Amino acid sequence: MTHPTEVPEPGPRDAETTHMAAAGDTDVVGIAPDPALAEGILADGPAADIFDAGTEQRAQEIIARYPVARSALLPMLHLVQSVQGYVSQEGIAFCARRLDLSDAEVSAVATFYTMYKRRPCGEHLVSVCTNTLCAALGGDEIYRKLQTHLGSAEKPLGHEETAGTPGEPGSITLEHAECLAACDLGPVLQVNYEYFDNQTPEKAVALVDALQAGKKPGPTRGAPLSDFKGAELQLAGFFPEDEATYRADVDGPSQAVETLRGAQLAADRGWTAPGAQDVPLPELEKK
Ligand code: FES
């Protein structure tokens, strides 16, 4: 029996029960475990061959939105991903030169946010929520199922690994994600950041099978499905020129009945929030 004051040592079985242990996960700052990939990432490639005049034009449009060029870094990184499907070393240099930043400053941002991928992404990015509520409702089971379905029982697909050749039609990058802000509809997953609510392992398998077959099933809500690069272009702030397509993207239903149930109950019962109290602000400590 453990004495109440003793802190138990974490045992190996603790690790076995986490999704981190389900397959070879990748450290988000582990930029390129594959030596060939590392070579490609570290090479100072010809950015002009990768980022054409159209991309350059878009970069200038992004920069013009901000009073200070460096403020444009986040959409610029999305623009890079819309071209390459990840943030390469060339992409880092492309942003740095145009925003008057160092490569190190751009790298620091690109490796901090999980939406910036340091390895080439599949045609589709499938993000399974394995945060607390979704995990308890079956998110861990869905993630494990997709790991073996997209990989194999012997070699399950790891976090941010791709089934198929990255960028090729039908290729899918799998990742586990923190709370996707849809706990009322859990367990959820996203494809290219569009929601698929109330998932089960069977539904998730049918979804990735359809994606691999070149289909684009409709998300539960939100914009129609495109692909990872297309989603990245929208995150950079560029939408379809066709008005009907644009409207479908921005005006798609974004909330569900469950999302509004609390507000609806309050409205039906005449409940209102108490008024704000006139609470004095604490005195600032004098130095
Ligand atoms: S825990 Fe999954 S959406 Fe919040």
Automatic annotation (TrEMBL):
Report the EC code(s) recorded for this entry.
1.6.5.11
Cofactor(s) this protein cannot do without: [2Fe-2S] cluster
| EC class | oxidoreductase
Region Disordered, as annotated, extends over: 268-287
Q: Does the keyword Iron apply?
A: yes
The UniProt keywords, alphabetically, are: 2Fe-2S, Iron, Iron-sulfur, Metal-binding, Oxidoreductase
Task: Provide the GO MF annotations for this entry.
Answer: 2 iron, 2 sulfur cluster binding; metal ion binding; NADH dehydrogenase activity
Organism superkingdom: Bacteria
- Matching Pfam families: 2Fe-2S_thioredx (PF01257)
Show the PANTHER family listed in the entry: NADH DEHYDROGENASE [UBIQUINONE] FLAVOPROTEIN 2, MITOCHONDRIAL, NADH DEHYDROGENASE UBIQUINONE FLAVOPROTEIN 2, MITOCHONDRIAL
Q: Which family does it belong to?
A: Belongs to the complex I 24 kDa subunit family.
User: What is the protein's given name?
Assistant: NADH-quinone oxidoreductase subunit NuoE
